[in-house]
Amino acid sequence: MTIITEDPLNAAPRSGIKALIAGAGIAGLLCALECHRNGIDVILLERQPSHSPAGDFVVIGPSARRIIANNWPNWLTEWDKLQWNAEISYYKHEGEYMMINEAKRLGIPILFNAVVDDYFEIQHEAGVKLRNGETLTADLVIATDGTHSKSGKLVHNNTVHATPSGFSVYRTCYPAEIALADPLVKARWGPGHNAGQEVFQFYLGPDSHANVLFGKGTCCWSLFHRDTSDTSDENWSAHLNPEDAIAEFDKIGGWDPALMALVRTTPRGGVNDHRMMWRDPQPVQTSPLGRVAQIGDACHIFLPTSANGSVQAMEDGASLAACLRLGGKDRITLSTRVHALLRFERVSSAQLMGFMTRQTLHHADWEVIKNDSMKVRRGPGACIGGHDVEQYAIDNFEAAALHITDGTPFANMNLPKNYTYKTWNIQTLNKEMESPDFTVSEILMDQAD
């Protein structure tokens, strides 16, 4: 992998702000780099002994790519080498390795085996308590350590509860040469793979769907299915065998033989069955004093059908870094609250899009699809892809700050066109979706132009 040697554009002078960032996933890494560019000194804390991301691929849409293009243009050539050209940009986890190498090059300290067991704040600082007994402090702490972040106790007193969605997703990724050893797989995907083509395919089933991503020497597949208590769990540890997934495919029935052949080629112990838990939108994303802020999965979980979780996590990191620069050291606690105000409604709307997408895929109307195949192919539209998150923070910081301090009117403009945000929750949404009269919000979803 090429090592980037050029400094980022639009770098700010050092602000004197010092931050701890808990979690070195895609949200934490991008936030650390953007904080560094915006003049903030950061230390990254990662619970794992080394950087070895699990999973298969992440979706990096145009708004996230714009962060890199605007400020880290020397990355683009290298990032594009990792991209699957399948209508949406799918990146292998080498993208995270590129970010962690850049963090090291810039001198950002990364502490591995740093398991955060507690977060705290006092008037002028915040900190974390590590499992090894060490306590670290800074001007603020940014929690990017995922769904089960211990920051929830401080931020919202652990009042955001998980509700079983009733669905899980099998997913895996492994070398294409293993899959292509099967004759059926080779016949279906071999010619395109040998020609350097990449494909992303949907397979729709009753209350289920499967995906295949094939290219660049790698194949990935996934199956979104009804929850199976024997294999499903809310973590990304890959330890199941292909026959576990095959049993679920067979239970649904009617799948393409080539898809089933592909599943059978999966290495043993290489499949994860991730239980998807639903959580209500979380408007409170900062601690009472404002010195601990949550971003990414720590404060908003996305269904995989949203194709948006990584995008919003990266937007979070860039937004918070920009707000901290704009507010300066004397307004850190206000800056974290401004960031949350600018982000919540947009992220909540994007979460809702994910639910709508799942509903569309799992209850496909084939007569409608025959006339308009984009009904099942559409991903996040212009509102998501066209957003410039840093510029939005620059344009709206002071107005949002006045709204918080003085109560002056403020309305976010980073929502889908003609869409008025309304509060929602899982319980109400489930009831609505169970109704035979329920329809997917076209105002929310149709943002292609």
SSE order and pairing:
Blueprint: E1 18-22, H1 26-37, E2 41-45, E3 57-59, H2 62-71, H3 76-81, E4 83-86, E5 88-92, H4 94-105, E6 110-111, E7 116-122, E8 125-130, E9 135-138, E10 140-143, H5 152-156, E11 163-175, H6 176-179, H7 183-194, E12 199-205, E13 208-215, E14 218-226, H8 242-252, H9 257-264, E15 272-278, E16 292-294, H10 309-327, H11 332-362, H12 366-371, H13 374-377, H14 382-385, H15 389-406, H16 426-434, H17 442-445
Parallel strand pairs: 1-2, 1-10, 2-6, 10-16
Antiparallel strand pairs: 3-5, 4-5, 7-8, 8-9, 11-14, 11-15, 12-13, 13-14
In short:
By secondary structure, this protein is of the alpha/beta class. The protein has helices at 26-37, 62-71, 76-81, 94-105, 152-156, 176-179, 183-194, 242-252, 257-264, 309-327, 332-362, 366-371, 374-377, 382-385, 389-406, 426-434, 442-445; strands at residues 18-22, 41-45, 57-59, 83-86, 88-92, 110-111, 116-122, 125-130, 135-138, 140-143, 163-175, 199-205, 208-215, 218-226, 272-278, 292-294.
Question: Could you explain the architecture of this structure?
Answer:
It holds the Pfam family FAD_binding_2. Keywords: FAD, Flavoprotein, Monooxygenase, Oxidoreductase. It comes from Bionectria ochroleuca (Gliocladium roseum). About 2% of the residues have low confidence. Helix content is 39%, strand content 20%. Strands 6-2-1-10-16 form a 5-stranded parallel beta sheet, covered by helices on one side. A 5-stranded antiparallel beta sheet has the order 12-13-14-11-15. A 3-stranded antiparallel beta sheet has the order 3-5-4. It has 2 domains: 332 residues, 3-Layer(bba) Sandwich (FAD/NAD(P)-binding domain); 115 residues, D-Amino Acid Oxidase, Chain A, domain 2 (2-Layer Sandwich). With 449 residues, the chain is an alpha/beta fold.
